[in-house]
Amino acid sequence: MTAKTKHWLLASLVLAVAAVITPGNVYAAKKYYVDFRLVQWKTAHYNNSQVAEERFKTLQSLKCEVQKHPHNGHTDVKYRQPKWRVLSFDTDEEAHKWQHWLKSMGFETRHEH
Fold first, then answer.
1. Which residues pair with 65 in a beta bridge?
2. Which residues pair with 76 in a beta bridge?
3. Is residue 2 pLDDT above 50, yes or no?
4. Closest CA to 102 of 16, 9, 34
5. Side-chain half-sphere CA neighbours of 3 within 13 A
6. CA–CA distance, 113 with 105 (Å, rounded to integer)
7. pLDDT, position 37
8. Is 80 helix (H, G, I), strand (E, B) or coil?
9. Nearest partner of 59 among 34, 78, 82, 32, judged by Cα
10. Over the stretch 15-49, which tens digit does the pLDDT of each residue have?
11. How far apart are CA 81 and CA 16, in angstroms?
């Protein structure tokens, strides 16, 4: 390999790295995390079967243990997640919205800045 070729390869590598590591790209790559868990079983009572199904599917997507028990004109959704799990988000606002929802459902959460 000639000195000219080495110089060209090095210059190309520097330009490629500079294109990837720009302030905009570093910011875009930043993620926001919410840790959550719920050690003990919790039961939520829903009079609306569609809302119960929505919660059931959402909790399943979060990898929670979840059970659905329709009876007497309503549905109980029982759930837990005894191990810490992590959700990642593109914005801090989105992370806070999910943290608020998780807390409202009885989960323990952690979200640091």
1. 80
2. 45, 69
3. yes
4. 34
5. 0
6. 23
7. 98
8. strand
9. 78
10. 333 333 334 444 456 899 999 999 999 999 999 99
11. 43
